[in-house]
Write a structure and sequence with these properties.
The chain is mainly alpha-helical. The chain contains six helices and three strands.
Length: 120
């Protein structure tokens, strides 16, 4: 997204349904939103319109597709969370996240590989 706007919980939950099933017809989304989110038809169509206006999805010919990948939203949400909650400190976030839990040898090695791959 060129200019990232945070998603509220209902936007994010509906985007997850879209990502999981796209491309999908709007009437199929009504059924999915009812089953997965407990929404009525009118709520689903309101959300389709709202997310299309925000530039997050497109609804052409009653087929809905995401215009922004899930990974991009997760990356932006994660960065915003670390910035706001931990003043941008990734080490502080990790200490809090692990909360005294121990990593297995394999998990520690996997994390080292990730860190090495993104290190400057």
């Amino acid at each position: 997204m060129d200019e990232y706007r945070r998603l509220c919980e209902s936007d994010y939950r509906f985007m997850c349904v879209i990502w999981d099933h796209e491309p999908t017809g709007s009437m199929e989304l009504v059924k999915l939103a009812e089953a997965e989110l407990g929404w009525k038809k009118s709520t689903t169509f309101t959300m389709i319109r709202k997310l299309a206006e925000k530039g997050l999805i497109k609804n052409e010919g009653s087929v809905v597709t995401a215009l922004v990948p899930r990974e991009e939203v997760l990356e932006n949400e994660s960065q915003t969370f670390v910035e706001q909650t931990f003043r941008g400190s990734l080490p502080s976030f990790l200490v809090s996240f692990f909360g005294g839990k121990k990593l297995s040898h394999d998990e520690a090695e996997e994390l080292k590989k990730v860190i090495d791959s993104i290190r400057e």
